Amino acid sequence: MDNIDAWVWWLVGAVGLGIPLVVTAMPEFGMFAVGAVAAAVVAGFGFGIVAQVLTFVVVSVALIAVVRPIAARHNRQRPELATGVDALKGRQAVVLERVDGSGGRVKLAGEIWSARALDTDRVYEVGEQVDVVDIEGATAIVM
C-alpha cells in the first residue's frame, strides 16, 4: 500500500465522492470530488500533503461558494413558459352545454372539456364565452 502514489488515493477519493453524488443527487459531493481531482493533480506534480489538502479544501469551498448560490437562484426562478394545465388557466372557452355549479361542457383550446362554474349559483348558457380560472383534474372551473 505504501507503493501507491498520493494522486491515486485522491482519485479513489474522487470516485468515492462521486458515488453519493449519483445516489443522492446532492451536487455538493460533486464539488468535493472536483476538489479531490484538483488535489490529485497537485500530488501528481510532486507537492506535499499540506499543499494537496489545501488544494482540496480551497477548490471544494470555492465551488460551493460560487455554484450553490447560482443553482439556488436558478431553482427559484419560475418557468417563463406555462405548459400543460397551467397554460389553460386564464384562457377563454365557449360553452357547449349549459354550465352550472354541478357541471357542463366547454370548448377550450380546441378540445371539449367538462366544466363547472366557480360560483355555484351562476349558470352559463350555450354560446357564452367564459374565463377558465382553474383546472381540477379534467374539469375546467369557469366564470
Automatic annotation (TrEMBL):
InterPro entries named among the record's database cross-references: Membrane_assoc_protease, NA-bd_OB-fold, NfeD-like_C
Subcellular location: Membrane
Keywords, ordered alphabetically: Membrane, Transmembrane, Transmembrane helix
Gene3D superfamilies in the cross-refs: Nucleic acid-binding proteins
One Pfam family this sequence matches: NfeD
Bilayer topology term: Multi-pass membrane protein
Transmembrane segments: 6-23, 30-47
Ranges where the NfeD-like C-terminal domain occurs: 85-142
Domain of life of the native organism: Bacteria
UniProt-recorded name of the protein: NfeD family protein
